[in-house]
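User: We ran a pulldown and think these components assemble together. Before we commit to crystallization trials, I'd like a predicted model of the whole complex to look at. Sequences follow.
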Amino acid sequence: MLLTGIICGVLLGFVMQRGRFCLTGGFRDMYIAKDNRMFYALLIAIAVQSVGVFALIGAGVFEYSAGQLPILAVVIGSFIFGIGIILSGGCATGTWYRAGEGLIGSWIALAMYMLMSAIMRTGPLGSFTTAAREPVIGTDSIADTFGINVWFLVVPFVALVAFIVYRELKKPKVKIPQLKPKKTGLAHILFEKRWNPFVTAVLIGLIATAAWPLSAATGRVFGLGITAPSANILQFLVSGDIDFINWGVFLVLGIFLGSFFGAKMSGEFRLRVPDTKTCVRSASGGLLMGFGASLAGGCSIGNGLVMTAMMTWSGWIALVFMILGTWTASYFVFVRPAKQRAAASTAVTA
Amino acid sequence: MKKTLEVLGMVCPFPLIEAKEAMKDLSSGDELEVQFDCTQGTESIPRWAAEEGHEVVEYEQLGEAAWTITVKKK
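Assistant: Here's a predicted model for the assembly, 424 residues in total across the polymer chains.
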């Protein structure tokens, strides 16, 4: 049964690598490039998953009840996580799949992310995490807060996303130069062609939906999740306690394998060593990601993609603060240095 | 005039940021060749060129995770 985790992960890693599905880049570009395409793609994946999962729950395939909302931990944790993913150059899943592409910088970020996540769970900061997540302000389910059926949230949300997609597709398209195709047929589509981000998003939404019943069948009633499983790997390795091995562990290992396969088959795999500055940045980013995601109870996938689809307060609040975190870090990493360089060059010319 | 920018080892979005910077110093008709190995750049660099209206003169994969793109400033 745990093997379905690997299959789910391989599919996800492959689709994300080929589809260049990068949430960090997406959040960052909303600010530095005024480009919302990847954010809209995320909304599509959320909508697909929301309909799929609530249909499955309605059909009685599994049961799910949202817990309580630890508001402060979610707000602060998500903001810190957002800063972390800019520094490390990829969100939790992004870091897993870039590790599969052979980026040593992502290996460093991943190691630090796993380490900090384990420290925040069963390490010296475990009691801090528990205490910080203790103050709750009522139910996490948005539908329960308003005492309505969840479909009254899902249907308007889907309609909104459909409207956004319609508006985006109507915009005049710029023709983007492509590499000359060297492959044909299925090989071209799978291992060469540029994938439309909206198509990629639908595929991710479907995988995220399938993850729920597959994971629930092994006793883990949740969808895609990255942070806890990443910590679990390290916790297992140092304790030998087999209880740390669950569906999610196979999922994240699958992401790595799927991305490696996609990159290798497309001629996009190579071990790449970054410079010292990038290494330090990746390491600190990984630590902040582990700290933030553990505090918030999820990363850009667990909260940003899954808990949002479940129509919970924590999912949507986390998404907003995560994005604010990426914008804050983007200002210091990209925008301010560019301004300073521009100012310096004007000074020289003058 | 043709300028070559080597951004191997740089991860997204730095290859694009460097390319934008380098482009500022060129005049219309000049060419900028960018050699990069960041996978995400295969999407972001040609998209930027197309949206800015620069012509992509050459765009090729050189080997495993290594690409070159030459953009002519509009």
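The CA atoms of residues 235 and 241 of chain A lie 8 Å apart. That may be worth checking against your pulldown data before setting up trials.

User: Thanks, that helps.
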